[in-house]
Structure formats: structure tokens, C-alpha cells
Q: What sequence folds into this?
């Protein structure tokens, strides 16, 4: 089609000239004045720490500063990668991330689909309002609830005792840690996560449902052939985000739920960085471990973006 | 309205199951919070015997009066309020100063600056370099370590920018015809039209400050500067009681550690639970703008 259209090239006067235009900069002077503070903020609190990553390749000493400290190349990375503990925390980090995608990711989609099927608008609103609530609780509160409810004589064990199940030390058993982490994550995020899918659902053309009904589609078939394809682009974008976030397991929550007994499954890269860096002040080593984590995270984000662009033509860049 | 096809037996069964499932969800979401509340106002001995399940037993507020006599809890509460107010003010002003220019097509260098900012969403220096920066700036053990890093959330900034872009350009053009310069049109046009988004962003940030715990944990040493969430962690997660609340056997014989733990949780979440139903319609819009057009 494109070849058949003859385009006359008209010089566009709004097109800025190549190179820096001082006239245009002068016109934006109020904007620069205003933007100066945000720019200073981003340079200070985001770009200086990026430059600070250098200490992962140096033997950082407080007295010599970042520039004065001696280069050690990849020594800290070698130390980390050859540590047997490395596999354990990498495994723990990846497994929590993968379980997150397998179980926590679909939950808000299912909730949105079910809410969409509710016929009483007021009841639907009520369910939504209540389901958003846990999103606003702090990590400390959620972990406090978990620690107390899951304790040996806590609410959960009382309830299980009612069914004749013996008391379980949930937070002391490594096998339970991932279930607790993911389960409480779903509890806290399912309602909030469903907002975006509900928004996508409202954008589906109602005529498609009418057409499906005329073709004899029941509610299940309507969901299968109209609703799901309608929200598929949103699902893909959100999946992409989750794949990119595989390495960013909620550090605060793990730290708060972690104890000596569940260390085997609860120690992850970021809690290790915290312990080695801020508790033991091995700044260079901890920065190297943190950088490793960021690079792997960026790798996942790139992979996710690539797949998404191939499959659905939606991507972040 | 509904066709016969969709009202068959299977469909009705599905509706019933769906409603039951949603009621279960409401219960699971709401009950833990409710349970914490009824325990906090029940008799401690009844709680220990496991009698409290759906209604408070021997309801009384003595746990709360004990709590509000504890100076460390009162101080942390006051600290949290100060951090939230100062932090949120900085957040909203800085986010607006970032979003406004970036919403203007005439802002020369807009693409470059946007890229510079968006990069920070995907890559950062990490924990240790950020900590060292705060240390170098001399902010350790001050309120500024909690409110300056994170002054602008890129995500919120994008939502605000999108909102600003939605203000019809004709308004600015007519103001310009009347001789208004950029600053006048910002004050006379943009800000009055943006009250809703400013309030929403303010509340988003405020909830963040109210709930934040990690910054205080790594940057603050001085117990007098601790925010509520640190006290909450020490009491509820680690189970350490502060001086005053330790003497729970004294005047209030029926108050136990569990009562106190749950009362602190209630005290910490009440402000948020009061506020969020009011901003619900705004944040639903905010999430939609942020994620669909981002």
C-alpha cells in the first residue's frame, strides 16, 4: 500500500535544527529553572551511587575514598562465585522469584475475571474495596501478623487444632518459608493487582459479547474467546514486568521473616548483601554481590522484553 | 435483559459459587485485621485461653491507655508524623517540578532528560553505594536521610506528567494571548486544575513514608528519632517490649504481651485505613494512567 501513495516532502518548520539550538534553549528558560532541582536530585541520589559501583572493583577503604582506593579487578566477583554459599542464595532468590510468577502472578487475573462476572455492582464494589486494603499495610505490620498468627500457639495453629491437626512451627521449618512468603504476598497484592486487569476489561467492546451470544457462546466460552484475548496485551506487559523483577524479591519482608531456623531457604542475595555490607562492613564485597544481582536482573528484563516483542509486539523499549 | 441462554442451571451454579468465593475472599482479607482489633480490646487471660474468635471478651481499652503512657511509643508516633509531613511535602513539590517541564512539548531537551530519568527505573547503584553516599553527605542519623533519597518516584512522576499533558493546550494558548508568561499560566491554570492529582500523589507518598521501615533501620541510630515502624518491628516481630510496657503485670493485670502487640498494630494502621477509602477512586485512575499509557 505504502508505495502507491506519493508523498511530497514539505520541510517541517517545527522540526528543530540538528545540534544545540540556543534560541530554543532560551525559550525554555523557565522550564530549566524549574527542572534544576529534580535534575540535581537524580544526579545526586541515582547517578552518584551508580558511579559508586566502582568500589566493587576496588579494595575500598574509608580513608582513601572511592577514587583513592586500590583497583583489585574482579577479585571480589571471583570470591563470590567460587563460594559454595553462592549457589544456595542464588537458588533461593531464583526460586522465590519463579514461584512468584507461577502462583502470585495469575492470582489478580483470576480475581479480575471473577469480579467481572459478578452481576451486582454494589457487591462488586464492596469486594474490591475490601480486597485493596492489605496493600496499604506496611511490610512490618504484615510480617508482624504472620509471625504472631503462625507461631506455635497462634491463631492458625488454634484453627488447625480444631480440625485435629497438630501444632506446626511454621516459621521454624525451612520447607514452609516459600509458601508463607508467596501466600502472604498473594493476600496482600491480589486486590491491588486486579485493578489494572479490571481497567483492561472495561475497554473490551460490548458488541463482541453480543456477537458471541448470538453464536451460542455460554459464559465460559465468552470468557475464553472474548474476555481473555481482550486483556491479553495487559497480561503480557505485566508478565514482562514480573520476569524483570525476578531478582528483586522483597528484601524487607524476607529480612523480617528470617530467623536462624529457616535460613536454609530464606537467605537471599539481598539479605546477604545487607549482612556482609552493612553489618560486617565488607563494602566492596557486598557491592560486588549487589552488582551481580542487578546484572542478572537486567538480563531477565531484557529477555522478557525480547520475548514479549516477538510474541505480542508490545515491549518496554 | 439477559438472554435465556446465559441463565441456565450451570450459569446459576457458577454465580453462586462465585459469590461464595468472593465472600470467602472478603473474610480472609478482613478477618485478620478484625481479629487483631478484638484481641487488643479483650481480656488478656481470655485471649491466652484461646476464647477470642469473633467477639471481644470483657471489652476494655486498658491496653491502649497503657500504650499511650509509654513515652517511646508516643515519641515514635510523633516522629512518624513529622517524617511523613516533611517527606510528603518534598515529594509532591519535587515531583511536580519534574513532571511539569517534561509535560511540555516546547521543553528543549525533553527526550534526553526523560531518558536520563527512566534509566534510573531499571538500574541503580544498589544498597552499599547509596548508603555510602548518605554517609558522605553527612545525613546519617538525621531526618534528611529518610526524606531526601527517594524524593521523586519516577512512576508517580510519569502519572503526574500524563495528567498535565491532558490539560487542553487551548487554555494555555488563550492565557498566552492575554499576556501570561509560563509562571503565571502555571499558577493560574495548571495548579488549580491539578488539585486532584496533587492530593492523590500526596497520599501515595504519605502512605509510603508512614509505612517505611528500612531507611530508618539502616540510617538511624538514635532511639529518640525512631519512627513507629521500628518500634513496631521491635515489639511485634522481635517480641521486645519497651521499658514501660514491660511492667504489664502491674496495674493492668489482665493485659498481656499479645494485647500490647496487637494494640500497636491497630494504632499503626488506623490512620491508613481511615484515609484509603476516600482516595480509592483516584488511585484506581492513577494506576490506570500509569500502567496503560506509561
A:
Amino acid at each position: 500500500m505504502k508505495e502507491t501513495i506519493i508523498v511530497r516532502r514539505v520541510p517541517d518548520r517545527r522540526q528543530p535544527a540538528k545540534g544545540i539550538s540556543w534560541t530554543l534553549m532560551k525559550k525554555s528558560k523557565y522550564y530549566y529553572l524549574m527542572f534544576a532541582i529534580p535534575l540535581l536530585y537524580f544526579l545526586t541520589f541515582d547517578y552518584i551511587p551508580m558511579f559508586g559501583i566502582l568500589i566493587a572493583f576496588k579494595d575500598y577503604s574509608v580513608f582513601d575514598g572511592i577514587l583513592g582506593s586500590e583497583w583489585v579487578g574482579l577479585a571480589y566477583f571471583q570470591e563470590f562465585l567460587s563460594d559454595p554459599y553462592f549457589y544456595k542464595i542464588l537458588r533461593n532468590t531464583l526460586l522465590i522469584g519463579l514461584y512468584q510468577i507461577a502462583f502470585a502472578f495469575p492470582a489478580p487475573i483470576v480475581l479480575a475475571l471473577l469480579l467481572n462476572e459478578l452481576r451486582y455492582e454494589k457487591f462488586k464494589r464492596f469486594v474490591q474495596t475490601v480486597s485493596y486494603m492489605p496493600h496499604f499495610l506496611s511490610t512490618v505490620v504484615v510480617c508482624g501478623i504472620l509471625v504472631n498468627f503462625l507461631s506455635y500457639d497462634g491463631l492458625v495453629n488454634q484453627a488447625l487444632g480444631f480440625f485435629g491437626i497438630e501444632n506446626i512451627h511454621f516459621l521454624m521449618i525451612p520447607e514452609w518459608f516459600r509458601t508463607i512468603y508467596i501466600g502472604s504476598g498473594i493476600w496482600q497484592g491480589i486486590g491491588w493487582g486486579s485493578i489494572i486487569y479490571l481497567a483492561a476489561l472495561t475497554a473490551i467492546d460490548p458488541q463482541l459479547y453480543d456477537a458471541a451470544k448470538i453464536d451460542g457462546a455460554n459464559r465460559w466460552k465468552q470468557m475464553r474467546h472474548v474476555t481473555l484475548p481482550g486483556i491479553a496485551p495487559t497480561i503480557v506487559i505485566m508478565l514482562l514486568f514480573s520476569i524483570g523483577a525476578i531478582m528483586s524479591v522483597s528484601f524487607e519482608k524476607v529480612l523480617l521473616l528470617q530467623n536462624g531456623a529457616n535460613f536454609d531457604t530464606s537467605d537471599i542475595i539481598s539479605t546477604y548483601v545487607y549482612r556482609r555490607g552493612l553489618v560486617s562492613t565488607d563494602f566492596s564485597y557486598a557491592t560486588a554481590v549487589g552488582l551481580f544481582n542487578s546484572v542478572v536482573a537486567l538480563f531477565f528484563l531484557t529477555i522478557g522484553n525480547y520475548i514479549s516483542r516477538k510474541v505480542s509486539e508490545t515491549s518496554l523499549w | 435483559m439477559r438472554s435465556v441462554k446465559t441463565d441456565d442451571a450451570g450459569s446459576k451454579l457458577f454465580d453462586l459459587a462465585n459469590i461464595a468465593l468472593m465472600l470467602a475472599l472478603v473474610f480472609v482479607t478482613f478477618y485478620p485485621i478484625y481479629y487483631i482489633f478484638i484481641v487488643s480490646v479483650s481480656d488478656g487471660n481470655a485471649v491466652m485461653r484461646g476464647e477470642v474468635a469473633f467477639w471481644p471478651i470483657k471489652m476494655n481499652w486498658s491496653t491502649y491507655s497503657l500504650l499511650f503512657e509509654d513515652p517511646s511509643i508516643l515519641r515514635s508516633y510523633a516522629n512518624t508524623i513529622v517524617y511523613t509531613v516533611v517527606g510528603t511535602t518534598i515529594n509532591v513539590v519535587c515531583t511536580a517540578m519534574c513532571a511539569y517541564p517534561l509535560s511540555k512539548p516546547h521543553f528543549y531537551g525533553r527526550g534526553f532528560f526523560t531518558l536520563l530519568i527512566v534509566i534510573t527505573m531499571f538500574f541503580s547503584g544498589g544498597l552499599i553505594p547509596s548508603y555510602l553516599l548518605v554517609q558522605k553527605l553527612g545525613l546519617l542519623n538525621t531526618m534528611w536521610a529518610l526524606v531526601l533519597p527517594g524524593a521523586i518516584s519516577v512512576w508517580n512522576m510519569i502519572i503526574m506528567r500524563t495528567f498535565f499533558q491532558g490539560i487542553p493546550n487551548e487554555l494555555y494558548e488563550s492565557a498566552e494571548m492575554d499576556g501570561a508568561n509560563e509562571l503565571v499560566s502555571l499558577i493560574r491554570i495548571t495548579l488549580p486544575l491539578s488539585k486532584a492529582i496533587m492530593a492523590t500523589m500526596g497520599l501515595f507518598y504519605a502512605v509510603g513514608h508512614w509505612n517505611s521501615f528500612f531507611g530508618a533501620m539502616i540510617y538511624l541510630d538514635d532511639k529518640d528519632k525512631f519512627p513507629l515502624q521500628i518500634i513496631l518491628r521491635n515489639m511485634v516481630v522481635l517480641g521486645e517490649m519497651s521499658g514501660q510496657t514491660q511492667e504489664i503485670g502491674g496495674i493492668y493485670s489482665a493485659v498481656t504481651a499479645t494485647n500490647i502487640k496487637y494494640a500497636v498494630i491497630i494504632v499503626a494502621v488506623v490512620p491508613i485505613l481511615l484515609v484509603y477509602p476516600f482516595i480509592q477512586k483516584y488511585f484506581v485512575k492513577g494506576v490506570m494512567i500509569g500502567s496503560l499509557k506509561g
User: Anything to note?
Assistant: The longest helix of chain A spans residues 283-312.
